[in-house]
Design goal:
Elements (H helix, E strand, L loop, with lengths): L2 E5 L1 H5 L3 H11 L7 E6 L7 H13 L3 E7 L6 H4 L6 E4 L13 H14 L3 E4 L5 H9 L16 H14 L13 H8 L2
Parallel strand pairs: 1-2, 2-3, 3-4, 4-5
Length: 191
C-alpha cells in the first residue's frame, strides 16, 4: 500500500536528504514505488537550488513527488516549471463547497489545467461532503482525501482498515487506478 511522507523545509534543503532517504529505504527494504514524498508549495519560496536538486535526487531514487497545499504558497509558475513532480495536492480552499460556488470551479479548473500541463495527477484535500466528491468525479478528478472518507485514525484502526480494504478490493470500482469506496468509509466517519 502506498504511503505519503511529508518532508519539512529543513529536510528538503539539507545536503544529505537524498543519502539519508536512500539509506532508510535500504534499511527497511521498502520499494520506492510505494513512497510518495510530499513537499509543501511554500517550501519552494527560497533556496531553490537545494530544493530542486533534492527533488531531482529523490525522483532519481524512484520516489514519487507531490506538491502539497498547491495554490496557497508563494511559488510562481516559472519555479514550478523547473520541478519534476507527479502530483499536485489541491488545498481544501479550492475544493470546499465547489459544488455550490460560482468562483471555486474556475479556480479549480485552472489548477487542474496546471496539473495537466505537467502531466501530474491531482489529489483533492479536505473533502467533507458527497456533493463535492460527486462534482469532482464529474470533472474527471478521482483522487480525494478528507473527513468525508475518514477521520484521523489510530495505528490499530489503520491496520483494521487496511485488512478490510484488502478484502473489499476485489469488489471495488477502479476509476483511473484508484479505489472508489466512499460508502465503505462512511462507517469510519462516526466511530
Amino acid at each position: 500500500m502506498p504511503v505519503s511522507v511529508n518532508l519539512s523545509r529543513e529536510s528538503i534543503i539539507s545536503s544529505d536528504t537524498v543519502t539519508r532517504v536512500k539509506a532508510l529505504l535500504a534499511k527497511y527494504d521498502v520499494a520506492c514505488r510505494y513512497i510518495k514524498v510530499e513537499i509543501t508549495e511554500s517550501t519552494m519560496i527560497s533556496d531553490y537550488d537545494p530544493v530542486l536538486d533534492n527533488i531531482a535526487g529523490l525522483r532519481d531514487l524512484g520516489l514519487s513527488i507531490s506538491i502539497d497545499d498547491f495554490g496557497t504558497g508563494f511559488s510562481n509558475l516559472s519555479t514550478l516549471r523547473l520541478l519534476e513532480f507527479d502530483q499536485l495536492k489541491v488545498d481544501r480552499q479550492f475544493i470546499h463547497n465547489i459544488s455550490h460556488s460560482d468562483s471555486i470551479p474556475g479556480l479549480f479548473d485552472f489548477i487542474k489545467n496546471v496539473g495537466s500541463l505537467f502531466s501530474a495527477n491531482l489529489m483533492c484535500e479536505g473533502m467533507e461532503n458527497l456533493e463535492d466528491v460527486e462534482y469532482l468525479k464529474s470533472v474527471g478528478c478521482f483522487n480525494h482525501q478528507g473527513w468525508f472518507f475518514s477521520k484521523a485514525l489510530k495505528a490499530q484502526q489503520i491496520e483494521q482498515l487496511i485488512t478490510e480494504l484488502q478484502t473489499a478490493k476485489s469488489k471495488a470500482v477502479y476509476p483511473k487506478d484508484h479505489i472508489e469506496l466512499a460508502g465503505f468509509f462512511e462507517k469510519y466517519q462516526h466511530s
